[in-house]
Amino acid sequence: MPTLSLRASSVMVCLSSGAESCGGSAAHGGSNLALDIIFTKVRNHRNDEPCGPSGPLAYFLSLCNKRHRSHFGCLPEAKASVMADQTLAKFVNERSILTLLRLNGGASRATISRALSLTPATISRLTSDMLKRGLLRETLALAVPVGEREPGRPGIGVAVNPAGAYFLGVEIGVSVMRFVLIDLCAEVVEMREETLDHHVSADESVAAIMRIYRGFAADPRYLGKINSGGVTVPGLVTNDGFIVNLPILGWRDTNLRSLLCAIPEIPFSIENNANAAAFGAVYTQPDTQGPCTVFLKLGTGCGGAAIVNGRLLRGADGTGLELGHINLGDPGARCSCGQKGCLETWVNLAALSRSYLGREPGPGDDIAALPATVASACAEGDAVARRAVDSLAAHLSTGLASLVNIFNPSQIILGGAMRPVLNCCLADLRRDVAGRIIPGTRMPDIQISRLGAFECATGAACVAHHKAFDISNVEINAAPVVEPAAEQA
Predict the structure, then answer these.
(1) Is 298 found in the same domain as 275?
(2) pLDDT in tens, 116-136
(3) Does residue 445 sit in the same domain as residue 360?
(4) Of 6-15, 184-193, 253-262, 378-387, where does mean pLDDT reach its minimum?
(5) C-alpha R_g of the chain
(6) Domain of 265?
(7) DSSP category for residue 100
(8) Cα angle at 312 between 471 and 33, to 5 degrees?
(9) For residues 404 and 411, is the Cβ–Cβ distance under 8 A?
(10) DSSP letter for each residue of 333-378
């Protein structure tokens, strides 16, 4: 399936030209539907000819539909431009329908037409084709307002077919790898976890991804339907998917994108784990969407992410928003980054071990189980456990107050392995943050992520889902996908 890589110069393409007739779009304030497409400068294609025979639009469209490729270089520029508009219009309209139905459930064709400001004939043509391709399914006995009922088809609607496509998500963690498969409705259908007795290398991780992917791909339920994948790591990932530094696993200057070409069947996106978890939390829970969301993932480390007006903030190179390295001014233990005083060193698993067990975690310790142990002891009135929870809450609330003053978020979502402990001190966190932010600043809603231990893998799969099928305002400028080897030739 086609994907968009959001980089380089932009070109406005009016979608009302060609075969697909478009009116105003509700998502664009009722104006003519247009798409600001950002094209990547690939190979030798020129950005000064976006619709020409050698421009990036022609190249992009040549990848869009493997079944019906057109060599625009053989066509006059005007004809290539018209074909480009028509193909792009269909591409955008189909994904608008999928997004609308995924977020709102089934709807009649008339309702879709009104919501997207597309003609009934266009919706009928598009949905019929999508039904044949298995992307949609018809729903019976749909409650439709009398004025919107379609002649001859009362009560018949369409909905996203969950089995229309699947997406693989992978978390490469510390001594653990997690895998999920989500369907076209972005619901998790498969989960796998592999615990390792060592820190996994890049080559080992790719071998594991290949094995799990091919196991899923051989399943009759998913045969030929796994569209793409996402991989997440707890380190610095640049905009082009290059891993600059991953100190927890000992990786530096690692070209994971290149290694993933060993799996040519599907393309992969690469993302920082906190970014992926934040994206997944918003993407799978539309009710949590707000103008600004700050996400913290607390576990072996402390990763952070921020989504502002539907876009994931990444910084100039893609390595920004390392919120766990905000300096609290209290030296404490040395951080994995080499500094002292980082928020991460006060709120991670090692900090919990020091405050509860009185020592650094040892080789034989089940450190991942420690938060549940501390939470259980705290609930039973254990004084040591209570002090450990209070210490974590005090440092975390200091860091959160700084984030509120910087971002003015509408909500803060907390995830990671520390969830059991965070549930013990959520009320304290809300109270302490409210008392430390600048007077007059609105207090954000602080909540615990609902995605659980597989939040990073789920988020990685959601990134892949979004890149293939979704053009909603929940945007993400993730690393460009790795094209299958056959496409690179």
Answers:
(1) no
(2) 999 999 999 999 999 999 999
(3) yes
(4) 6-15
(5) 24
(6) 164-279+456-488
(7) H
(8) 25
(9) no
(10) SBPTTS-BSBTHHHHSHHHHHHHHTSSPPPTT--GGGHHHHHHHHH
Q: Provide the domain count of the chain.
A: 3
From residue 303, give the alpha-carbon distance in Å to each of 272, 278, 298.
9, 10, 7
Tell whether 303 and 434 lie within a shared domain. yes
Q: What is the pairing mode between strands 226-233 and 166-172?
A: parallel
Tokens of 100: 């609308």
**Buried b vs exposed e over 361-385: b needs ≥16 C-beta within 10 Å?**
beeeeebbebbebbbebbeeeeeeb
Measure the CA–CA gap between 347 and 419, rounded to whole angstroms.
12
Q: Counting Cβ atoms within 10 Å, is residue 56 exposed (0-12), middle (13-18) or buried (19+)?
A: buried
Q: Model confidence over 157-198: pLDDT tens digits?
A: 999 999 999 999 999 998 899 999 999 999 999 999 998 877
State which of 160, 194, 229 marks the end of a domain: 160
Distances (CA, A) of 43 to 40, 238, 478: 9, 20, 20
- The mean pLDDT value for 202-228 works out to 96
How are beta strands 166-172 and 157-160 bridged, if at all? unpaired
- Ramachandran area for residue 149 (φ above 0: left; ψ -120 to 50: alpha; else beta): beta
Cα(45)–Cα(57) distance, integer angstroms: 9
Average pLDDT, stretch 350-376?
92
Q: In the beta sheet, which residues pair with residue 157?
A: 139
Q: Which amino acid appears at position 213 of this protein? A: Y
| Boundary (domain end) residue, out of 143, 160, 177 | 160
